Structure formats: structure tokens, C-alpha cells
Amino acid sequence: MTTIILTGVYDIEQSARILRAGKSIGLNLNFHADELSDTGGAELAGRLGARAASHLEEASPAGVAAMAASGTAAVLLPTTAHLLRLRPPSARAIIQAGVPVALGTDFNPNAYCLSMPIVMYLACTTLGMTPEEALAGATINAAYSLNMSDRVGAITVGRQADIVVLNCDRWENIIYQFGEAESLITHVIKKGKLIFSQETGFVGL
Fold it and tell me: What is the mean pLDDT of the chain?
């Protein structure tokens, strides 16, 4: 395996200083860690009680254990690993360690993807997650990673009514129908109000 030397990025001590300063003024800590090499980012996330750490392709078992102990979520970004041909994060080991796993797009010029159905598809096909784990990663665990799971992320009494309505026999089709899953969406409801339908398009917030 090629060793990648990172330059122009914060080292672990600098990162810790910045993160501690943020935590001291009440910010939830959520940062990218251990994408190209094991820099100790996952261990730092656990040590500081971060809300979440993203990427984690090269996170060590000790780092994953530290995240599990602190309740820190892992935000896995399968489009990035796929497009940059990185080793995928060890989703199964992270899940088995007891770390909440969320999913994200990492949308940026080198991972130019806004589609959560594609992210869920890649989570299943390249990270070895089950459809149920991918769904949780895109909903309730994603909300947890943002410290919002008490308000959004699940369809339950007391949470905000953010709902996507699908026209399909099985909900898994939103993952299975690669590249055309968005065509299954018939309605989008945000805060209890209809903001999109296939018949009328977007109607605003």
C-alpha cells in the first residue's frame, strides 16, 4: 500500500487545540478524520467526546473503540472512497464496535454527488452494510451526528414531520434502483408541509 504524506493540514496537536476551543464555547465537535492515513483523528474524536467524525477510511481499532466509548458517530462517505479509489472504511468493524454509523455525500469537487440513494447503494455494495443499516445511516443516525435526533430522523410522535413518499413495492428500491431512485419519489413533506410532488414540482417551503 502506498504511504501518503499529508502536507498543509493541521496536525493532531493543532487540531486538538482548535477543537477544544470550539467545545469551550458550546460547539458540537464534528470533523474529518483519518481519510488518507491514520493520524489519530478517531482517537482524538473519542477523547474529546466529539459528536461525530467523518471519513475514517484509515481509522485504527483503538480509534474506533474510543469513538464507541464516547458515543461519537462515524459519518462514512462511500462516494469519496469510490471516486478517489481509497480503501473503504471498515463499516462492519465500526458497527460491531457499537459506533453509530451515519452516511453522507461529502459533496465537493472531488466527490461531486448530491444523491443520498447513490450513497446508500454504495454503502451496501462497497461497505458491506445492509439496506436497513444504510437507511438508518441516512436518517436517524445522520440526525444523531448533527445532534438533531430528538427532532428529526424518524417518523415518530414528537419529531418534525420530514417525510419522503415513495411509489414502489418495497422501500429497498430507493437503494436498489441505482441511478434512477429519485424517480420513485412522489412527494416530499418538510415540517408537515408539502414542498414537492411529481404532479406540481416544488411548491416552496
Answer: 94
**Which class in CATH covers the domain with range 12-152?**
alpha beta
3-state secondary structure of 111: strand
- Angle between helix 116-125 and helix 131-138 axes, rounded to 10 deg: 140
Residue 74's pLDDT band (boundaries 50, 70, 90)? very high
Question: Which residues touch 154 (CB under 8 Å, ≥6 apart)?
Answer: 139, 140, 143
Per-residue model confidence as pLDDT tens digits over 146-169: 999 999 999 999 999 999 999 999
Are 126 and 141 in contact by the 8 Å Cβ rule? The answer is no
| Tens digits of residue pLDDT in 119-141 | 999 999 999 999 999 999 999 99
**Ramachandran angles phi, psi of 36, nearest 5°:** -100, -20
Burial of 14 (0-12, 13-18, 19+ CB in 10 A): exposed
**What's the CA gap between 141 and 136, in Å, rounded?**
6
36 neighbors 58 (Cβ within 8 angstroms): yes
Which residues make up the CATH 3.20.20.140 domain(s) of the chain? 12-152
